[in-house]
Specification:
heterodimer, A: mainly alpha, B: about 200 residues, alpha+beta, two-stranded antiparallel sheet, 4 helices, 3 strands, about 5% strand
């Protein structure tokens, strides 16, 4: 196998990672704004958590829930709330990705 | 979109007086920024950073005004020897270049000779394989017919030929599945009847 397919795969993964990161960031902001309003998080931490969780979502899919939960606990959230928000976040992300995939496959 | 989202997840109304907890992954930086925002009342004067220097005129320097001290400007700077000019770049021996040129020319010549030899050998289509497409310029004779079929004018397989020796070869040789043409043999330098 030459270098071209490897480069293509790497770039495709980076592209998916970027898209997932954006989706995760938007969903997380919305969750904090509408549902977990008793918490406040700075944008930098939110971006870092979104970036790491998007990478985990790309590799492990739904198991990235554990990564998200660990990151929320590390940021100072209670364990119960972290469980709730990470579950909600991953489910919403999976829904958005599924909807996007359905739209994409319908247009093919 | 926002309305749909707010319907799915209605905004929670927090009771008044609920303390909002701040979450962060970078607690130290937040603390620093908060500190910087607060007004600083008593603060020590800024220490000069190390390594910073300021030019002081010679006249203002009391140590240089001493009678036994020579003026500062008379201190001649140390002289440095000029660096030696770089050695001239070594010119590679022309013999090596000639060798490589000779070798490459020899390889090209050998390749041309082999190509001519292979291209000039008689091939009745029996060996060699090659493309599976139809052979241009050669029309297969029906098996057992004992004669060659007429072919298109000229042998257009890129090797030339005039088609004048069909009958001769028809009489003298067993017939393959290809017409024969007369053309100059590149190896022997004579006219031969060879297959297209």
């Amino acid at each position: 196998m030459g270098a071209a397919p490897i480069i293509t795969i790497v770039f495709a993964l980076l592209l998916f990672w970027g898209i997932l990161y954006l989706i995760a960031y938007v969903v997380l902001r919305l969750i904090f704004r509408f549902y977990f309003s008793e918490y406040e998080m700075d944008s930098k931490s939110m971006k870092a958590i979104s970036f790491k969780t998007a990478g985990a979502f790309l590799v492990t899919s739904i198991l990235s829930f554990f990564v998200a939960r660990w990151l929320f606990i590390r940021s100072g959230m209670e364990k119960k709330a972290a469980l709730k928000i990470s579950a909600l976040w991953i489910v919403l992300m999976a829904l958005v990705v599924a909807v996007l995939l359905m739209i994409w496959s319908a247009t093919q | 979109m926002m309305k749909i989202f707010s319907k799915i997840m209605p905004r929670r109304q927090l009771p008044s007086g609920t303390k909002i907890k701040r979450l962060t992954l970078y607690p130290q930086k937040i603390v620093k920024s908060e500190k910087s925002e607060a007004p600083e009342v008593s603060e020590a004067p800024e220490a000069k950073p190390k390594g910073e220097w300021r030019w002081v005129p010679t006249k203002e320097r009391p140590d240089l005004k001493a009678p036994g001290k020579l003026p500062y400007y008379k201190e001649s700077p140390p002289r440095y020897e000029e660096p030696a000019p770089p050695p001239p770049p070594e010119v590679s021996a022309p013999a090596d270049n000639n060798n490589w040129v000779f070798i490459s020319i020899a390889i090209i010549v050998i390749a041309i000779v082999f190509a001519v030899l292979i291209g000039g050998t008689d091939d009745n289509g029996g060996g060699g394989g090659g493309s599976s497409g139809p052979r241009r310029g050669c029309i297969a004779a029906p098996r057992g017919s004992g004669f060659l079929t007429e072919r298109d004018p000229g042998c257009d397989d890129g090797r030339g030929g005039d088609g004048t020796c069909k009958e001769t070869l028809l009489n003298n040789r067993s017939i393959g599945n290809c017409t024969y043409v007369r053309r100059t043999d590149p190896v022997r330098g004579i006219d031969r009847c060879i297959p297209c």
